[in-house]
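Page 47, continued from p. 46.
Same chain as before, 173 aa.
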Amino acid sequence: MDPKTMLISLYIAQATVDDNRVGPLYKHIFPPAFAPSLSFVGMPWKLIPFPRCELQSKWIAGVLSGRISLLSKEDMIADIDAFYSSLDASCIPKRHTHNMDFQLDYEDWLAAKCGSPPPEKWRKEMFFIAREKIKTQTERYRDQWDDDDLIIQAPQEFVQFIPELPQVQKLST
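Result:
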């Protein structure tokens, strides 16, 4: 067997897919056996992907640059085992391992690890409003919204990154 095939076989033996669970992955990103050389971006689902992928990418870049340290392989495995045990105790099937029904804790954790600001307050409020609408109005949750005040906050938040805009433009929506 040539070295490339042996290496691929070794990777496959250490990172597996079982009933839609890709693992073992520390925080849905790093397989302990190959961290930090191998990482996965975008594994969690049922959430807004762009902010999460940005934070995951920042964390990976920080780890690869040496600016951010990972736990030891043993500690990563212990964390993964505890996570899997919590899923089992909650009767959550393997196929939902990467289901991030509640994304804010994960994004806050990633932001703290990266030294980035956490998601804005208006984003979190929008998340809770949308989540509640989905639960209470499953057939028509997209049809009616009560979040106009949050929609107004979004551009106001973004203009802080464009200081050359005149103040008049900043305030108009």
